[in-house]
Design goal:
The protein is of the alpha/beta class. It has two domains: about 10-25 and about 90-239, 3-Layer(aba) Sandwich (Rossmann fold); about 25-90, Orthogonal Bundle (DNA polymerase, domain 1). Helices cover about 40% and strands about 15% of the residues. It has ten helices and ten strands. It has a six-stranded parallel beta sheet with strand order 5-4-1-6-7-8, with helices on both faces. A two-stranded antiparallel ribbon has the order 2-3. Strands 9-10 form a two-stranded antiparallel sheet. Helix 1 (about 25-40) packs antiparallel against helix 4. The longest helix is centred in the first third of the chain and has 19 residues, at about 70-90.
Length: about 240
């Protein structure tokens, strides 16, 4: 990363949940497979499922089950996921250490997700990340505040404002084009994670709007983007 291209004065780091900090890939795929088997007696087209990653569930259902009762689909999907959630999710490598480091350095952190709040908070608490997160803006939180979900910028801008920051001092880390488009529309620095399994062709949008400012292959690379350096005691500080 070239130092002259790094953002300046970053004090706020926002993260997507699914596929970014939490590996929920297995439980999401298993939940859709269960819904297809239960409701249609068939196996899903896995690429079609991956193309919906990061989208609100209503959009997913309309694409994957166009001829089914959407409320019934969501019930079957959510019941299975609720029953298997804790056994099938885990943090991506280095995420706990990253969040702890950002928190200790005074960086404001938040989660902005199209997942519902209860399962988001449940996952954060399960792995102890709730101690480091200053705000969660989930899909139902956005609805309550009359905010449009990602890929619109509303929830990102709401989190930035609530954390007392500004877009030019904030970044959004995500795994899907929904995340990157949302962050770019909000005017924050966008970072895409290379461990995403979401498909690049999931959205029909302008290439520049879907292009992240940075791509990281390890969670620790975010510290370089923010401009944090290791002190003599082994801890990091924000330059």
């Amino acid at each position: 990363m070239s130092p002259d291209k790094l953002p300046q004065n970053i004090d706020t780091a926002l993260f997507d949940f699914d596929g970014t900090i939490m590996n929920t890939n297995d439980v999401i795929l298993a939940s859709w497979r269960h819904a297809f088997k239960e409701l249609l007696g068939a196996e899903p087209d896995e690429k079609a499922v991956l193309d919906t990653f990061g989208e609100p569930i209503d959009d997913c259902v309309s694409k994957l089950f166009p001829d089914s009762d959407p409320e019934e689909v969501k019930r079957v999907y959510r019941d299975y996921q609720f029953a298997h959630y804790e056994e099938k999710i885990h943090l991506f490598p280095g995420i706990y250490e990253l969040m702890e480091t950002l928190h200790n350095a005074g960086i404001r952190t938040g989660v902005v997700t199209n997942r519902l709040r209860n399962s988001t908070v449940r996952g954060l608490e399960l792995f102890g990340l709730d101690a480091f997160i200053d705000i969660v803006v989930a899909f139902d939180d956005a609805e309550e505040e009359n905010l449009n979900a990602k890929p619109e910028p509303d929830a990102v801008l709401y989190a930035v404002e609530k954390l007392g920051s500004r877009p030019e001092r904030s970044l959004l880390v995500g795994d899907t084009l929904n995340d990157i488009i949302s962050g770019n529309r909000a005017g924050v620095t966008t970072v895409r994670v290379a461990w995403a399994i979401a498909e690049d062709g999931a959205h029909d949008t302008e290439a520049d709007e879907a292009a992240p400012d940075f791509l990281i292959h390890k969670s620790s690379e975010l510290l370089d983007i923010i401009g944090m350096t290791r002190k003599g005691d082994g801890n990091f500080k924000k330059e």
